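Standup notes, structure subgroup. Blocker cleared on the zinc ion input:
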Amino acid sequence: MSVIYHERYLDHVQSWGHPESPERLKAIIAKLGEASFEAGIITPKPATPSELELVHTSEYIDMMKNFGEGYMDPDTYHHDDTYEIACLAAGGGLLAGTLAFDEHRPTFVIPRPPGHHATAMSSGGFCYFNNIAVAAEALLSRKKLPAKRVAIIDLDVHHGNGTHDIFFHRKDVLYISTHQWGIYPGTGHRELVGVKKGEGYTVNIPFNSGAGDRSFELAYQQVIEPIILQYKPSIILVSIGTDAHYRDPLADLALSSNGYLDLARNILKLSSRVCRSNTAFFLEGGYDVDVLAEIVTGIVATFDSHDYELEFTKKVDSDCVGEDALNYVIEVQKEYWEL
Ligand SMILES: [Zn+2]
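Run returned:
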């Protein structure tokens, strides 16, 4: 599995004590090195303005370029070099999507800044350009052998409001999100299913606090896998935040590291069934750096069929806290899919 990373990602800083810090990627790179996976790291080029314009308005791109120093929202600071590094993050996503799609090999891009809260014309939630949306649009719109349909699975604990809004009216992109209900950004209600031609192609799975491995396993078996099998995407892109882990300081879901790896394994198997193993993982959030490093390294190891011992595997959620929430989602989605 190729890991896509650029050293400049470490130069992106928010403010002192901010959870979205360079330490996150330093921990991942160190852990990949310990497990001897650093050899597979590939360096991307920056996305160009015309590539960003596949998703973002030219006014917003110009604003990003010229904003200077200051807060774009209370959690999202803009420095003089933010535009350049955000272009490299989006470029990492473009490379991850292209390699996965053209060479049928799974990729994992670990960009900073992350992307799934960025809309077509706004930043927010530590995000500036929507890396996964830019990658999806590039595959759909390219001249040579374009993708017909892209599925995006968003496993970050926060709802990916940016990706959700960008594709809410579209049927060539299926957006499925698991998230904790009631936290930032406050969006992702289960009855929001897309509009116009996009109706039925947005699947929101909001969980209450405490939902963990068993709830996610059921969500995978009863909603995610059956819908992807029916949708038949050309590629599966995954927004993976490790902030749904029980140790994460910013939220209250309860996935274990095992739970994450099971989901990743299932998605890889699913991609080999429906789309020639075309799958790319995009790092979003995750603020316990030890958990973050072990999950990313664990996924890379799993994909390469190496054993990797996990530390944070405390099993919780044997009562399946999310079952009622999931049953409600199934009722809503039955109108569009056989579930
Ligand atoms: Zn998050």
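Discussed briefly. The pocket of zinc ion is lined by residues 156-158, 241, 243, 284-285 (CB under 6 Å).
Next: hand off to the docking folks.
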